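Backbone geometry:

***
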Amino acid sequence: MLRNALRFAPLARALLSGATVIAAVAAPSALVAGCADESQPETWVKRLDEPAQRAPAIKRLVQFFEDAMTRANKNREDPTVKALLDKIAEPLASTYATGALDEKTRVDLIKFLADTRDPRAKAALAKACTEFGKGGNASEDDVRWAAPAIGALKLQDAAQALGEAFVKLQAGTQKGSQAYKNVHDAMLQLKSPVWKPVLLERLARPIEIPSGASDATRVAPFQNELFWQTTSAELLGELREPSAVKPLLKIVMTPAKADVAATAIMALVKIGKDAVPELVAALTGQDADLVAYAKTVSGGDPKLTTSHVRSAALVLGTIGRAEAAAPMAQVLASSESEVDRAIVARELAKIVGAPTAESTFQAAFEKISPSTTIPGGGGSDNARMELAESASRFYDPQLVPWLLKQVKDAKGGEGEKDMVQATALLSAIKLMTKAQIADVKPVVEKEGSPLEKDAFTRASDLLGKCGDATACYLSKLQEPGSQEKATQFIGIKAAYMLGVLGNADTAREIAQQIQKVRQAAVRFAAVSAIDHLAVTAPGPVIDLLQKAVDENKSKGDANMMQADSSVGQVLYRLRAR
């Protein structure tokens, strides 16, 4: 009692005297803590400087952001969200860059900084990539979250750092498998030329194919190389890098790199015109390095020692530039390999605007034996069958009598003969005009299967309704019935007739209506006709097709996005012109 009385005596005297009392009676340390307003982010920003308070301060500041985003309906542009970021973005980014964080706090912090999409976090985002692989300062998890922000913000200053993470990231590991897609996508967004040396170096690395899933020592390295080399090929195509032409072609020529080959081919198509001289040199055997390389990767198989010819032909055909036709004709005249001649002839049919390509193609067909097969897709297809299908790419009804002759004269084993007859007959039906119906009909009745007979009936009806009127075929291309799988040949035939009868204006008209063509096979036929017709000045058509592709992506229309794979290929060919 006495102690309490003595303790409060000064306060009592002050109250009795009327003096102002300052609440310093309480313990000083408790009062200081009590004065800090923990509902304000500034309080927690200050605690970032205190090692013992850093982790809870980061957690609380992240919570402030999440609460603000919830109130703003996830809108980062909301004024309250932006005002909050003005207070916390730089201090938190600086805290990440300083380090000295436990792994969970560090990963949570970089995930938050990435989610803000705030440019003020760029130093932290870059550090997440540069420190990866150097110890405990960053892991695959840090890169996984930082990469998308670097790409979305187009942080060219962080390109070097992202490239460093790319070569260290191993897609064949558990954590790497969770991060590699983010890194790939971010690099495609950034498309930085500073990566060229690294990308070219990755393409030159060997790939060892594992014998199976149980071959543990090779599975992870194989997955790593697929990630590095596929990404490198894709980026070099996006960068349209001329120095990558030969390395990319070597990818196509190498059997062990078959899983990367499709990406490499598309990259070469994107490079386009600049790739043609080196590809022609490979095709004609003038590049001694590639001739020697073909022998090296052949594995002793004599059929593969000329892989430079067939690989170059495949790419040249996919690009489709007219200047490739003459070198292809040269190879067709001089090659001793039937497989090479078959592949070159097939690719020659894809060349647009080459006046002598058609007759050269026919002569090559006649020289190829009925039993020759073309490897591809894990198996082999009869060469004459493939060429009979390719003939329709010329969009020339004058080929119809020649195709009917191939149907009548087909030779080989029963299976080989049937395949050639069916394919040649279907190509003739695609190309025939109204005046040629009478010539095609008896051959269909004698040699056609139910498939060809149905196609002929639908094509004949369409020709009877439309004749030579492109406007009529354009309307049938879009007709609802032509989009059903059972009747899709109506749309396919309409597309071929547009290619036969149309011009550059027709190509634009098809492109304007392409979104109404939703069946994948019809859409492919339609854009193939555009490819044939838009020989010069394809700019307006490119814009229309790109708009359609972008629209389907923005809608998230999975079916149309899949159907747009053919649109994308035609876009690359048009841009190569």
Remarks:
- The first strand starts at residue 373 and ends at 376.
- DSSP finds 32 helices and two strands in the chain.
- The two ends are 101 Å apart (CA to CA).
